[in-house]
Backbone:
């Protein structure tokens, strides 16, 4: 195995571990690390496949807590935003993509670390806007999680419900993003080879995360990840 493929395997493991413990974060961890040595389009295509696989595994674990009734507005909004994001990804210069990804990481990390509690959102139509924002970010950078996380926090979902609902929303995003990348011809032999390397690490990372979930302090773990993401975001912005 070449050093690049070994690095992909290591990144996949820690990205999946983060998703299994906290319910999200796969793309936030994997994308900024992958784009350091992979083409942004290749990285986004690979992460979309990883995300779909992981979310299926997550749903097998948390599916009983799923409350899908009010999620359709978020799904509809994301389906509108995804193709716009994919088009932007293929048209923008790689430096602009890396800078924008860095800004997203910095903004989300700082918000999550220091922001006051999110107020309850009672009007369900806000779901369209949060869904569109998630689709736009998901299509461009595979980072559609933050808008869904913020909306979930505003609805005061309990942890099992939060993790289950989030997997459904993210899977709708991921499957749609995969289809968009297929239609755009982004799944080259290189991307499929990298996914073959990633697949066993997805299973290992998920199982490790499910095991650690019983012992680890989720709040502390999330803060550690957010600090790391903040550092990665600063690096991407500064170039």
Residues:
């Amino acid at each position: 195995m070449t050093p690049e493929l070994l690095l992909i395997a290591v990144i996949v493991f820690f990205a999946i571990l983060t998703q299994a413990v906290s319910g999200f974060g796969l793309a936030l961890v994997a994308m900024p690390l992958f784009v350091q040595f992979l083409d942004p389009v290749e990285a986004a295509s690979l992460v979309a496949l990883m995300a779909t696989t992981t979310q299926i595994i997550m749903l097998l674990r948390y599916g009983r807590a799923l409350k899908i009734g009010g999620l359709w507005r978020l799904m509809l909004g994301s389906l509108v935003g995804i193709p716009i994001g994919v088009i932007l990804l293929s048209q923008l210069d790689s430096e602009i993509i890396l800078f924008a990804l860095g800004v997203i990481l910095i903004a989300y990390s700082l918000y999550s670390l220091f922001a006051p509690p999110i107020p309850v959102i009672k009007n369900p139509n806000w779901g369209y806007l949060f869904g569109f924002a998630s689709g736009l970010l998901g299509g461009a950078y595979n980072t559609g999680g933050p808008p869904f996380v913020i909306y979930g926090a505003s609805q005061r979902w309990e942890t099992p419900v939060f993790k289950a609902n989030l997997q459904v929303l993210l899977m709708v995003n991921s499957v749609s993003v995969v289809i968009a990348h297929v239609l755009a011809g982004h799944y080259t032999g290189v991307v499929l080879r990298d996914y073959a390397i990633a697949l066993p690490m997805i299973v290992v990372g998920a199982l490790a995360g499910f095991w650690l979930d019983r012992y680890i302090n989720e709040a502390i773990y999330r803060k550690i990840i957010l600090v790391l993401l903040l550092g990665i975001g600063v690096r991407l912005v500064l170039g």
